[in-house]
Amino acid sequence: MGRRAIGSGIAVIINAGSGSVGAPDEAVRVRERFHAQGIDPESCVCVQNKEIRQHAEEALQRGCWAVVAGGGDGTVSTVASVVAATDAALGVLPLGTLNHFAKDAGIPLDLDDAVATVAQGHTAVLDLGEVNGRTFINNSSLGLYPLIVQHREMHQRMGRSKWWAFFRGALTVLGWYPVLHVTLSAGEKTIIRKTPFLFVGNNEYKIDGLKLGTRSSMDAGALSVYMAHQVGRSGLLALVLRAMFGRIRDAEQLDIFSTEELQVDIRTHRTRVALDGEVVVMAPPLRFRCRKGGLRVLVPKREGDSS
User: Fold this and answer.
1) Looking at the predicted structure, is the pLDDT value of residue 292 above 50?
2) Closest Cα partner for 146 from 25, 59, 276?
3) What residues contact 229, with CB distance under 8 A and at least 6 apart?
C-alpha cells in the first residue's frame, strides 16, 4: 500500500441512476462532504454509461491523479476500466444497491467514511479480470444470468422496479432454461460440457454459508471458475440449497477450479457475456485472464500499512 499527498486533481463522477442516488442535489451533498475534508474536487452527474466513461477519460487527460466513482458496481467497473493500467487511483463512493466491490475491498459503505477514505489517499493494488480485452472488477458469466439481465432491463424500461423486473426475468429464462455447449481450456485442464451457466470471478468467491458471494482477497492473482453440469431446474435448485447450507463444494454437479488464464470455446458465432452486471455480445473463443495488480484503489489505512 502507499499514500498520495492530497490536493487538487480529484474528479468525482456520480451516476444519477444508481440505487441510492435519488435526490437531484446528490452532487452538492457529495461536494459538501469533500469540502469538510478540505478538498475541492471536480464533480459531475451522469446518466448514461458512455458519459461516465467519457468524463473519466477527460479527467485523466486533465491530469487528475484520482477518479472517484459514485454509484454501484456497474459505475465502479466503468471507471475502473479507464483508470486501469495508468498511474491514477480509483476512488469509490458506494451509492448503489449491492456495492459488492466496495464491500470486498474494505471500502466503507457510509458516505462520510467513504469520502474520508479518498481524502486519506492510501492505496492498494488489486487485481482485475479481463475477457477479450474487456475488464471486470467482480465477475463475468455466461448462460442463464446474461439472459436474466436482458429480460430485467426490458421490464425496467416498462417502468417496473429493479427487483420485480429481475424476478420476472428469472422466471422467463428458467422456463426456457437454455444450455451452452462449451470447451474450457486452462493450462493442461480441458473440460467439455453442456452447462446452464459458467461463472468466472476476479479472485476466489465464497460459494457457501453466510459469506456466500463474497471475497476475502482481491490480490491473489487468480480467476475462480464455477460451472454447473447439465442439471435440470430441480438440480439447479439443489445446488442453490447446498450453497446455502455450506455443502456446495461436495456437489458432483459443479466444476470448481482456479486459474490465471482460461479459454472458453462455444458452439455459436456470438454469445452474451455479463461483465459486472452489464451484458455485452462477444465472438468466441472467449479468452479470460487475471491482470494481477492491474488497478490502484483508494482504501482505508489499516494497522501495519506504510504511511
Assistant:
1) yes
2) 276
3) 193, 194, 195, 235, 252, 253, 254, 255
* Domain end among 73, 94, 120: 120
The predicted pLDDT at position 4 comes to: 44
305 assigned to some structural domain:
no
Cβ contact 296:90 at 8 Å: yes
pLDDT given at position 2: 47
Could you tell me if residue 154 is inside a domain?
yes
Query: What CA–CA distance (Å, rounded) separates 113 from 109?
Result: 7
Using alpha carbons only, give the angle 291, 258, 69 rounded to the nearest 5 degrees. Answer: 40
Residue 306 lies in a domain: no
Q: What is the pLDDT of residues 276-285, one digit of tens each?
A: 989 999 999 9
Number of structural domains the chain divides into: 2
Please give the single-letter amino acid code of residue 207.
Answer: I
Residue 298 lies in a domain: no
| One-letter identity of residue 164 | W
Query: Which residue, 55, 88, 120, sits at the end of a domain?
Result: 120
The C-alpha atoms of residue 184 and residue 191 are separated, in whole angstroms, by: 5
Residues 53 and 81 in one domain: yes
Considering the domain architecture, whether residues 116 and 160 belong to the same structural domain is answered as no
Give 241-277 pLDDT, tens digit per residue: 666 666 667 677 889 999 999 999 999 999 999 999 8
pLDDT, position 168 = 79
What are all long-range contacts of 172-181, with beta carbons under 8 Å and residues at least 24 apart?
Answer: 173/144, 173/147, 173/148, 174/144, 174/233, 176/147, 177/144, 177/232, 177/233, 178/143, 178/144, 178/147, 179/143, 179/230, 180/142, 180/143, 180/266, 180/267, 180/271, 181/266, 181/267
Q: How far is CA 165 from the centre of its chain?
A: 20
Which CATH number does the domain housing residue 144 bear? 2.60.200.40
Provide the residue range defining the domain that includes 25. Answer: 2-120
